[in-house]
Amino acid sequence: MSLAAQLRFRWRTLFDRDALDAELDAELADHLDRQTSANIQRGMTPIAARRAARVEFGAVQRYKEEARDTRGLRWLEDLRQDLRFAGRMVVKSPLFTGIVVITLALGIGLNTAVFSVVDAMLLRPLPGVRAPQEIVQIYRTSPGNERFNSSSIPHYLDVRQRSTEVFSGVAAWSFVSMSVSTGDRPVRVFGSMVSANYFSVLGATAALGRTFVQAEDEGRGAHPVVVLSDGAWETLFGADAHVVGRTLLVNGRRVEVIGVTAPDFHGAMPIVNAAMYMPLMQLGQLRPGSDSDFENRGNNIMNIVARLRSGVSLQQATARIEAVSRELLAEYPGDYKDLGMNLVPQGKAGIHPSMRQAQIGLTTVVMCVVGLLLLVACVNVANLFLARASDRAREMAIRLALGARHGTLLRQLMVESLLFSVLAGAAGVLVAIVAIRLANQITLPIDLDIRPELRLSPLVLWFSLGITILTGMLFGLVPALQATRPSLLPALKGAVPAGRSRARASRVLVVAQVALSMVLLVGAGLFALNLRSVTTIDKGFASEHLAIGEIDPTLQGYTAAATDDLFRRLRERLEAQPAVQSVGFVDQLPLNLNGSDNGVEIPGYVPAENEGMSIQYAIASPEYFSTMGVRLVRGREFAAQDNANTMRVLVVNQRFVDRFWPGQEALGKRVKSGRYEYTVVGVVPTGKYKSLGEEPLAHMWFSHTQRSTFGMAVVVRTKGEPSAFLETLRREVAALDPNLPLSNLRTMDQHLGVALMPARLAAVTLGIFGVLGVLLASVGIYGVMAYSVAQRTREIGVRMAIGASGGAVVRMIMRQGLSLVLVGSAIGLVGAMMASRLLSGILYGSNAIHPAAFAVVPLVLIAASAAATFIPARRAAAVDPAITLRSD
After folding, report:
1. What's the pLDDT tens digit per position in 602-633?
2. Three-state SS string across 399-452, please?
3. Alpha helix locations (H) across 332-392?
4. Residue 97: how many CA atoms within 13 Å on its side-chain side?
5. What is the pTM of this model?
6. Are the C-beta atoms of 248 and 182 separated by less than 8 Å?
7. Among residues 54, 245, 638, 829, which one has the fewest Cβ atoms lying within 10 Å of its Cβ?
8. Residue 113 in contact with residue 463, Cβ under 8 Å?
9. H or E stretch including 137?
């Protein structure tokens, strides 16, 4: 009978006895027919053949009963006995059990916690959404490998109208900054402007009230309404069940609350949560002057999400979207030249498709690291079980001598190992719960509500169960094989049963443990050194003594002229403070989570095929560069005289110059962007603008006195500690307008904490894992050497009786232990070098083969191993040879 057939038979034996009886009866009838046919072939008449077959029926009936009992119940009884025996072994040695469970629980728990991050970031379907597998994201594409660009409102409307045959609905959304007040001082939050069909396309319903209706997608002067998120409902209204119909001030205008979203709904982007939702048609009311966005195809501020019609495949939808691109190019050649569209299933979009590869890379590295830690724990426990197997050699020999089969003993020992791993898995879930709670408490120093919401989902629990069973198999198999093959005669006499194979297995496990620990510790060292290099990397500005805050006067209805006047008066008040050196304003701080880009044309420069000509930019005030500590390579920074009536000016970085005018003087060069032509008046060094690990990027700055913008970040260089000036900055803004929210108030070092957070989390996490790996390896080496010394007590006593000194014994034990450590270290260094090359893609511009990591880490591991070996060696040297020999 095949293994699959046996498993099916045993399942029916336990849970479907009627089906089992029917199967056996059919089997017996078939057997009776075959026997009758055989009798006829031997020359019997049919009647005699049938009679002879019936004579055998009693034996066949006994076969039926035996089959039921043997194939059905014996294995279950054996399993029960194995579990009872394993339970007695667990209770018999509480110290041994505790060490094994704690060691494995750390590995299983940390693996489970890290997999919960993978689940939240990459695997979990969009929460609070109906049939998320039908949801797709639609992005614009442009030359230069820009495949995930946002879209304009007119572009969204065209896609929605022209793709009804493949999509049941197409919606648009965009994060916007809002000033919100329920009566007290307003606060700034991030909400979403969404098309009225946004909730229906996603298949989301309101927990209270309603969502938007079609009428709210028509007419830009409609009565303003808002749908609150569950979090904003609790924060702003204290979870008032009668909130529907109440009003709140949004950007100085009264808005009626019509609904509250379900607690698990977070919109089309997981992890990032909007505080509230307002209809897109109210954009002009929310931000005066924005009505032109409904006609401007170049203002790409929206994200597009769509739902596939039933029966429509992704390939069919892609083909239709490509056809729409061709139609738009034919109708608007100036706006759609070299542009296209890209369809991404929601399951592959994540937070944003451009970040997915980085997320996969980082989570893969962390999963590999915690996997190594679990392997170290498994090797450690395998050594402990191997040592205990030697102590149980006499028991196994007696059972084999009495007729027990090797397979029976092997099964029993594997059941015992699995019981230990199940206990460790239960404890590991508790470790994972603690780790997940700590991870969920991590917050970014920004106003955007980002919550990964890690949890033990069913998928995470299945993963935990899987690695628990795998762990039991990993650490239990080798000791079980060794334990069931003792040398019978020596073992029955109670002699030392270790034997060459068992000693060899123990040494191999020690070498493997040291090698795995070396790879783990080197990886942790690389990330720690990388964090150090990141903090000293040239960012292009001086971050010390800078206090910053963000202000958007248009949220309170300020006109462009009133906004400029507010910034002028704020700068004058701040510069009058004795603790202030200088003040500047900029709309996009470096190393921020968002950015802006503009297409440029350079007279005389011919772009290469598919070369992206969209350049990152910021809008800055006079004194911004000096306030930030950005030195000028050539030329000047902006001046108050640069205004709408003078020549339009531009400051660029060195990378911009090297790309478009290599070897030429950049000052005086012309750059066309949008409708205007700008003259380069200054060049600054190339810094870091989007991330610390980026390659050098071209960047440009427009003058705030010539190009208005909505919100600005005020940057203040202080003479003393910038954190002490934050309250003064808040007070000065309130003195100008008490209703104007000042957000993201922090020092520049705190702002850089967002950019440094991935490196810090990786360094701290891997550092903890590395320390745990060293501790586990040290404990494992100590256990093996201590057991080895205990097994060799008689040998050591004889050596000392014939003249060996205590120092010679210590050196012998140390030499044997450290030889294994050195072999494992050499293998681990080779593995670490291979791993470091894989890590080079996610390290911030540092050399993956870092000499310090590969020089210091082996010394740390060897020192820890030497200490773990020295203790048993000293104990061996203290053996009294007379007592040892007399005891034998």
Report:
1. 998 888 877 778 888 999 999 999 999 999 99
2. HHHCCCCHHHHHHHHHHHHHHHHHHHHHHHHHHHHHHHHHHHCCCCCCCCEECC
3. 333-336, 346-349, 353-391
4. 16
5. 0.72
6. yes
7. 245
8. no
9. strand 135-142
